[in-house]
């Protein structure tokens, strides 16, 4: 059996009792390292916080390992219990569909243990989840690559009065261009897009496209470390949010559509103080 | 402090360690009874499963009690820790925004402990969460009340190639019309809309409106008791899903938009056997 266990958003205490049971009866435990694991006590020294809680060792699996060694992990799961831990929910913002497809093809039973993900936890700011349109992703712009296909989607959502969740780019274990040229892999340090960076890119695209999808005065909500004890949630115009110190990653951003009175009342509790 | 604790979707084991800690240090524990609590061991005999796990008594709070007695609960939370438990996530499909607004107005600190909700757990069928449009609700039709404003929303999502989550009506502790006329409250037995009922209503509306938002051959995914050990997930055309025995509530339904190859591969694992 392969258990795919969501860890939730905060730290090691956000696992469910059902998830903890699955981990404790598994012979091997892997944790995906596609996203920031810092709040889960996973550091370069190892993953002592989780291992202490679980009472067993945990192997950190980066994307490369999951892609290259999935078959070995799945073979193991044919004859014993294996737990694969993921931050958030197994099918939230980052999805693990490929792993499930491969498991099913190999005849491995898969059991998913759900948890909170950014896709539902953003509800905490008071904007109703059923009034969101399509979710978008904002990639890091480079000198030569400034894709803006998210712009139409935001415009469409806003024209319909719907809110837009913007997932912000994460670069973890990306081989550097230089190292690729030299034929050996050296990794760039991890990068996590900040809310300020995202808003700057959004405003740049609005200036270029000029279709008034949004502007500096558009109400947004910024979330940092959502679900953690030190989470920061701030509501205000794009211009106002540019002045907020949200602190360390992960960040995400919601662009509000039309808001109802109760939604506005909730947002006022998170309003940026000027 | 008022802790609003998500219980997740399955049973008492889906609480997080963080949530359990909050319950255990709270002086009073309430559980909202707006949705089905059967899988949480909450029956007419009481709520023994949860009480046994928590080691303390739990008060079932129906919508009426929360509306009428919220102030008493919040006053208590001004001077001690109170836990308010909700099925799923506190800000998932059913929202508790009003309670938070009242708490903040009374100066009560609120801490939200997230968990899985239907809004993110539907990701398990393989349809990507970021490709969903606006969520809709399908109400029980009566002889005289057959509202179909959800139709335009489905059409819009489908025109954009987006998936649509349909939340199905729940009637818990609704006063009967007869009892309201007689001036004393007698409650109707609880009703939970089934997938079959929802599809019948959807097809009736399509026939009436005739704008080809969907038809009998449109691919859908039905979910029953999502997140529980006995969950049922079935993918197929509306016509095919009408033949599936999904068993007891809760049910929800997804109407697929355009699907990508990996999405189709995942759906094939849940395909209705003909």
Automatic annotation (TrEMBL), chains A, B:
Which of this chain's residues are annotated to bind S-adenosyl-L-methionine? 9, 89, 92, 117-118, 168, 226, 251
Regions that span the bilayer: none
Q: Which residues form the signal peptide?
A: none
According to UniProt, this protein's pathway is: Protein modification; peptidyl-diphthamide biosynthesis
| Enzyme class per UniProt | transferase
Function as written in the Swiss-Prot or TrEMBL entry: S-adenosyl-L-methionine-dependent methyltransferase that catalyzes four methylations of the modified target histidine residue in translation elongation factor 2 (EF-2), to form an intermediate called diphthine methyl ester. The four successive methylation reactions represent the second step of diphthamide biosynthesis.
Please identify the protein, giving its name as recorded.
Answer: diphthine methyl ester synthase
Q: Which organism is it from?
A: Carnegiea gigantea
